[in-house]
Amino acid sequence: MTNNEIIVEVQGLGKKFGSTEVLKGIDFSIPSGRIYGLIGHNGAGKTTAINALLGLTAYDGEVKVLGKEPFANRADLMADIAFISDVASLPRFLKVLELLQLMDDIHPNFNREKAEQFLSDTDIRLSSKIKSLSKGMLAQLHLSIVMAIDAKLLVLDEPTLGLDITFRKKFYRRLVEDYMSENRSILITTHQVDEIEFLLTDLIFLKGGEIVLDAGMDEISQRFCQIIVSADMVEQAKAQKPIFSTVQLGQSIMIFDGLEKSKAENFGPKTTPSVSDLFVALMEGNNSNKKNAQGEMQ
Amino acid sequence: MSSYNLASAKTLLRKEFIEHKTAFLYVPGILMGLLFLAFFVAVWRNGAQLGMLGNVIAHGEGFDLFAMLYSGSLAVWLGYLTLMLFFYFAASFHVDRKNNSLLFWKSLPVSDLEIMATKTLAGLTVFPAIIMFWAFLGAIIGYISLNTVGAFSPVISSINSGTSFWAFINVQVSAMVFIITSLLWYLPLFAFAGLLGVLLRNWAVPAFILIVAMISALESILTFSMLSRQGVFEQMIEDRLSAPFEIIRSMLNQPGSRVGPDTFEIVSMAEFIPGFLSQIDWVQMSLGWAIAAIFIYVASEYRRRRIES
């Protein structure tokens, strides 16, 4: 596979549960060598979108993963895709050693030595029964298993849920240092957005089954700015229609989409908003001023 | 195509064994241990009375006590195996969803149909093999027990023909053919229990009984056959359940049968196997496999399409 090959291509992805439309015909693509963050509130459609990519659920629209339709080719695709949708899903009746053996026998791209190497950095013993492991250990084991798979796409749905901060940081660092390569792509959903900001190359924000932002981090830093607006410039800044504004400790803070650099500098100190600030801005910002960020891009 | 092959099939069969070993390995072992313990306690406490038992059963000629006891124990094992397999199919087809491991298995390059087919294969090979192992072990302990009893009872000692090894081989091979054929005959019922397990989970067994009873009742009402005769569906279920044993019964009742109230000679596998297999309705057998395949396919499709717990 060459660099920048499209790993995932989604067009008009829709999904209904009864009369509830969870995904409303979304489009996006993921090239190789990128780390995407799929961010949204509970019920925004993140997990449904991921399940569609993984072939776990039927859907409307067109989805291609590694050139194949995932719902019809899940088993085939799983040789080149690794995923964790629930860290508590490991078969609890097995021992760790039996799980490694099982993976070794079944998965053509599983590297047992690598998994044992990852596990050697943990307190997990190979002779332990999986059901005897703590929640944190279960997550460590599952992540070790997944990171030992030579996959082209790694999908992590809330991979560090319930884990302490030390392990979360260690895991994400290892993900970048030991796992990521230009031939792979990673798609992550998490509520702890700030912790993964440093590793993301691209962001997709989902709201009510629709994409409200799909952009690379470089583009985001150029396009969005957060300004602590000087008291005498507040009215002028408001006239530029910020997508979000708030007052904290007596200071007006506004986030703008596509504000000209010359104007921004007049209003006050300018920074790039953090992913979590941008998320809040786009999800809960001033409805009257909010622009459709994806529409702006197009 | 997925990367499912012989190695992954073997691994998944081993996984089924690990997951369900309590019902097929530990419980039978404990039960057999208890039975033999009770037997030895009985011998130790009432050894002198065993001579009476020998007199009762030794009034016939050509009586091979070991063959008779072993055949009887195999019938019990078959009953246990069939019952446990019924529960195995009803539970194992949905156990991944129940124990929250469904998403893990779906992360492997194995299709849902391959998973279901492996579960079915485990039910027809691994677990019967374990039960046959227990039967085999029981036969060895039984032989030792019989000789122990023989020490207390010259009558039993004399009717134990001394051909036990040959008896064992004949009974064992004949029983294996009978058990495997019977399980294949019951396969559509097992597969239906599996399908109900996927659809209704813990309610599969009561639903199985309820559905069979409801169809029978509806047929009786619709055809006004409540009192006069058995309905077609009811007859079909009864035939499906009893056919292997009916064949055995007809073989025993044949003129010249060497197994009866006054005689129990060693079962000859050379005579039994062709005789038994020739009486199987292979059209019905094939039809059953086709229906089982449909049930298993539908169950796998349901599993493929639903990941919600």
What do these coordinates show?
Chain A has 298 residues and is α/β, with parallel strands linked by helices. Chain A has twelve helices and 13 strands. Chain A has two domains: 6-208, Rossmann fold, CATH 3.40.50.300; 218-297, no CATH class. Chain A has helices spanning 46-53, 74-77, 96-106, 112-120, 135-147, 165-179, 193-196, 217-223, 234-238, 261-267, 275-284, 293-297; strands spanning 6-17, 20-31, 35-40, 60-65, 81-84, 153-157, 185-189, 202-207, 210-216, 224-229, 244-248, 251-257, 270-271. In chain A, the strands form three sheets. A six-stranded mixed sheet of chain A has the order 5-6-7-3-8-9, with helices on both faces. In chain A, strands 11-12-10-13 form a four-stranded antiparallel sheet. In chain A, helix 4 packs antiparallel against helix 5 (135-147) and helix 5 (135-147) runs parallel beside helix 6 (165-179). The longest helix of chain A has 15 residues, at 165-179. In chain B, helix 6 packs across helix 13 and helix 9 packs parallel to helix 12 (269-278). Chain B starts with 5 loop residues before the first helix and ends with a helix. Chain B has 13 helices and two strands. Chain B is globular, with a radius of gyration of 23 Å.
Offer a quick outline of the entry.
The complex is a heterodimer of chains A (298) and B (309). Chain A is α/β, with parallel strands linked by helices and 298 residues long. Chain A is built from twelve helices and 13 strands.
- If strands are numbered along the chain, what order do they take across the biggest sheet of chain A? 5-6-7-3-8-9
Tally of helical runs of chain B: 13
Q: How would you sum up the global shape of chain B? A: globular
Mean pLDDT of chain B, rounded to whole units? 84
Shape of chain A: globular
Percent range of helical residues of chain A: 25-40%
Mean pLDDT of chain A: 89
Unreliable stretches of chain A: 287-298
Described by strand count, sense and barrel closure, the largest sheet of chain B is: 2 strands, antiparallel
Q: Would you tell me the structural class of the helices and strands of chain B?
A: mainly alpha
Judged by helices, strands and strand pairing, the structural class of chain A is alpha/beta
Our Rg estimate of chain B from Cα atoms comes to: 23 Å
Question: Any idea what the CATH superfamily of the largest domain in chain A is called?
Answer: P-loop containing nucleotide triphosphate hydrolases
Q: Give the domain tally of chain B.
A: 1
Largest interface: A-B, 31 and 31 residues
**How many strands of chain A?**
13
